[in-house]
Amino acid sequence: AAGCINVGGWRLVGASGIWHKRHYQLNHYELRAERVDVRDVIRSAYHVREVDVFRLALLGERSVDAVVSHDWPRGVERHGDAAGLARRKPHFRDEMQRNDLGSPANEILLNALKPAHWFSAHLHCKFAALVNHGDGGKPTRFLALDKCLPRRDFLQLITVERSKSGPVELEYDAEWLAILIKTHSLLGFEPPPARAPPIPEEFQRPSSADIAGARARAEKYCRRAGAPAEAPLRVPPLSGPPWHPPRHRFNPLQEANPQTDAFLKMLGLEHVVTVPVTAQMRPW
How far apart are the C-alpha atoms of 66 and 68, rounded to whole Å? Predict the structure, then answer.
């Protein structure tokens, strides 16, 4: 999944998931497939997809304050103390020598967006790097943190400058909304062996009119609908022992969310990779 929001004047991008070559060009099919290999679906659901990377790259370089991702950008260790990382994590050495440590998808985004900051996790160690992009612009400050466990480096506080004063509020990003609208046709839900719709070689970023239209839609909807936090939970929190599903059964992941319904309605879009809430669905 991917997204972009504004928080108190800071523009934040989220790029979830980890790299897996076999799933990169597949659809987000997990919620729509009627009969699936459930264990494979649970794995593929958290693997990054090409369409999400393409969408985020449309935001343009140096327009983002920070990217938050699970996986590291591939090759980012070369911009920090790579020798020290190899000493602390010797099992990384082969991947580092092959330039195979981290996500190629996040490497694309690092080079396309050139954000001021990039924060990651996944490899269970603290690591910092300063990525100079070779164009005379400001570098990207990369920081990865360790697992949240006792005596581990899992927390660091940083001070940042805000581009505007006033209260810190969570806001939609109008350009991102325009990108979602303009790229909606690139989504598909057919399961493998079907591939996702091809990414066009030439694609125009949303125009100022597209962005203004998306902003007007969001403002109109939010004034009418009120706070989206009022939407009820659809899925209960996990509890009890780990769930080990059998293979080849009907898809248990087919849950719907009224917040997704409201978001798509705001943008005037149809469900593609998700399903709408129906009266027959169990309330939580």
Answer: 7
Angle at 184 between CA 183 and CA 188, to 5 degrees: 115
DSSP string, 248-271: SEE-TT----HHHHHHHHHHT---
What's 80's DSSP letter? B
Q: Other C-beta atoms within 10 Å of 196: how many?
A: 19
**Per-residue tokens: 141:** 């400050």
In degrees to the nearest 10, what's the CA dihedral of 167, 172, 173, 178?
-160
Residue with tokens 């693997």: 47
Q: How far apart are CA 254 and CA 274, in angstroms?
A: 8
Contacts by 221-224, CB closer than 8 A, 24 or more apart = 221/262, 221/265, 221/266, 222/266
Q: Which of 110, 60, 53 lies closest to 211 in space, CA to CA?
A: 60
pTM exceeds 0.70: yes
Residue 243 to residues 38, 159, 246: CA-CA distances in angstroms? Answer: 11, 41, 10
Give residue-wise pLDDT tens across range 77-133: 999 999 999 999 999 999 999 999 999 999 999 999 999 999 999 999 999 999 999
Quick: pLDDT tens for 38-82: 667 777 888 999 999 999 999 999 999 999 999 999 999 999 999
Give 156's Cβ-side CA count (13 Å radius). Answer: 17
